[in-house]
UniProtKB/TrEMBL annotation:
Domain Guanylate kinase-like, residue spans: 298-491
CDD domains hit by this protein: GMPK, PDZ_MPP3-MPP4-MPP7-like
PROSITE patterns found in the cross-reference section: GUANYLATE_KINASE_2, L27, PDZ
Residue segments, region Disordered: 246-270
Name of protein: MAGUK p55 subfamily member 7
Record has Transmembrane as a keyword: no
InterPro entries, per the entry: GK/Ca_channel_bsu, Guanylate_kin-like_dom, L27_dom, MAGUK, P-loop_NTPase, PDZ, PDZ_sf, SH3-like_dom_sf
Domain PDZ: start-end pairs: 71-151
Family: Belongs to the MAGUK family.
Record-annotated membrane-spanning stretches: none
Annotated organism of origin: Ciona savignyi (Pacific transparent sea squirt)
Pfam families recorded: Guanylate_kin, PDZ
Length: 506
């Protein structure tokens, strides 16, 4: 019972009432008094003791073993205990791995190589690890472990390492993972903070999302992924068909279907091969010169997607929203200048020999031929937009991504994804629904079902081949909603923390 020394003191009186009304605080004070007065029983251990890998009974060594034996009491919740066990060559059950941040790790009392003697008075001697795992699975509430300390493991100092995954991983579908419950579920683009690489095949990591840390779990290491899955190559999508190189939207322009690739002299842009993870570092725009009022340089926004999905419509809307802030590179052409056109504004008018030389030297992001004239977008034209402190907006074919993804460009790649066939049917495309109730789409309404199916299939093939390079996805099932998402992405790129490949950082 609590007594106030000076009842006239209102503060102490209020504090006393508050404490006495809290059963948790009273319980804590009660336990403190019991421990301080040593009013508790010593833990009772079995007559069975342990030495040199063999169990035996010897009353003379009881005191010694009680001093070396440790008793750890944990309360089991829905959270896994965060430890794995295995059998050693002597038949003992030992702690094989401790997951960082788990219940066992937080206790600070269970360590790798500790020998498990008992769990809730059930002896571990003679049991297989699987039997003890089943036993633990059926227990709830307080768990009492009796362990003999094993040989201490000195953990090497781990440098801070962040990885961005390039593939999807579900531990419950992986037969090779030692403990599925300890596995980490992640998708392409997820950022993982590696906290332990003690096991060469299975690293421990935390999944980051909006600065929230999820549970520490195991993920396949680079070695494991490469050995089991890393040899899978993305399907080829054929030769590069160049974009429609236009500067004025209302001017005559080569149609994309009429452009032909210059195969004899064009550099090969194959779908890239992907390591399973990409080492990344934090990038804050205002701390790295991006968005700084003195030297604003912005990451290019790259829109990729199947032909006809609406990339150019979204690009035009973005530029129209702020022409001074968003820009496109001026294309090159080998054709003659027409009346009213300005060199360096509508096109860079150059000779065919100049363009062919640039193509051979890989100076063009993409290029094509139309009616005997070459058209192309040069890398220098992209750099000019960036150096003019504008957001460069590009709509290349995906084969150009391997050229764009570099330290100098730092592009942000957005996949403009067509709706599924079921969604298109629901929207009433082709036009069997009144225009007033149709969603706003950039997909032509007079397309046949086969053409729509081809559009969706091309999108799926593109994502399968290049999806590991995409930073974001926008389903263009409504052009207004898609444009709103694109504006949000643009704001994010200029203001918020991002994760970029470490090799891109200065």
């Amino acid at each position: 019972e609590l007594h106030v020394a000076n009842p006239t003191n209102d503060v102490l009186s209020s504090l006393s009432k508050m404490i006495q009304s809290s059963p948790h605080v009273l319980s804590l004070l009660y336990c403190h008094d019991k421990v301080a007065s040593k009013e508790y029983d010593e833990p009772q251990l079995n007559d069975t003791t342990y030495s040199d890998g063999v169990y035996y009974n010897d009353d003379d060594d009881d005191k010694t073993m009680e001093e070396t034996m440790k008793v750890v009491r944990l309360v089991k919740s829905d959270e896994p205990l965060g430890a794995t066990i295995a059998g050693d060559e002597k038949g003992n059950i030992v702690v094989a791995r401790i997951l960082k941040g788990g219940a066992a790790d937080r206790s600070g009392l269970i360590h790798v190589n500790d020998i498990l003697v008992e769990v809730n008075d059930v002896a571990a001697q003679g049991k297989k690890p699987e039997e003890l795992i089943q036993l633990l699975a059926g227990l709830s509430g307080p768990l009492t472990f009796k362990l003999i300390p094993g040989e201490a493991v000195v953990e090497p100092r781990t440098e801070e390492l962040y990885l961005r995954s390039r593939y999807k991983y579900h531990p419950k579908s992986d037969p090779l993972i030692p403990c599925q419950e300890a596995g980490l579920d992640f998708n392409p683009g997820d950022v993982l903070r590696v906290v332990s690489k003690d096991d060469a095949s299975w690293w421990q990591a935390i999944k980051l999302y909006n600065d929230i840390f999820y549970k520490v779990s195991e993920k396949p290491s680079n070695h494991t992924y490469t050995r089991t899955m890393g040899n899978t190559q993305p399907p080829s999508t054929g030769s590069v068909i160049r974009a429609s190189f236009r500067r004025k939207r209302n001017s005559p322009r080569p149609d994309k279907h009429q452009l032909t690739p210059v195969k004899s002299q064009a550099p090969k842009l194959e779908p890239p091969t992907f390591p399973p993870y990409e080492v990344v570092s934090q990038f804050i725009p205002h701390q790295n010169g991006v968005g700084n009022t003195h030297s604003p340089t912005y990451r290019p926004i790259v829109l990729v997607g199947p032909q006809g999905v609406g990339r150019n419509e979204l690009k035009d809307r973005l530029i129209d929203s702020n022409p001074a802030h968003y820009g496109v590179p001026v294309p090159h052409t080998s054709r003659s200048k027409q009346i009213g056109e300005m060199d360096g504004k509508d096109y860079h008018f150059v000779t065919r020999e100049y363009m062919e030389s640039g193509i051979r030297d890989n100076l063009f992001l993409e290029y094509g031929e139309y009616k005997g004239n070459l058209y192309g977008t040069s890398l220098s034209a992209v750099h000019t937009v960036i150096q003019n402190h504008q957001v460069c907006v590009l709509t290349p074919y995906p084969q150009a991504l391997s050229v764009l993804r570099c330290k100098e460009m730092k592009p942000y790649i957005v996949f403009i994804q067509p709706p599924t066939l079921d969604q298109l049917d629901t929207m009433g495309i082709p036009g069997d629904v009144a225009p007033s109730v149709r969603p706003k789409l950039t997909i032509e309404r007079d397309r046949t079902q086969d053409e729509l199916s081809n559009l969706v299939n091309r999108g799926e093939r593109m994502e399968a081949a290049y999806g590991r390079l995409f930073d974001a996805r926008i389903v263009n099932d409504n052009v207004d909603a898609a444009f709103a998402q694109l504006k949000e992405i643009s704001f994010f790129l200029e203001n918020d923390l991002q994760w970029l490949p470490s090799e891109w950082m200065d």
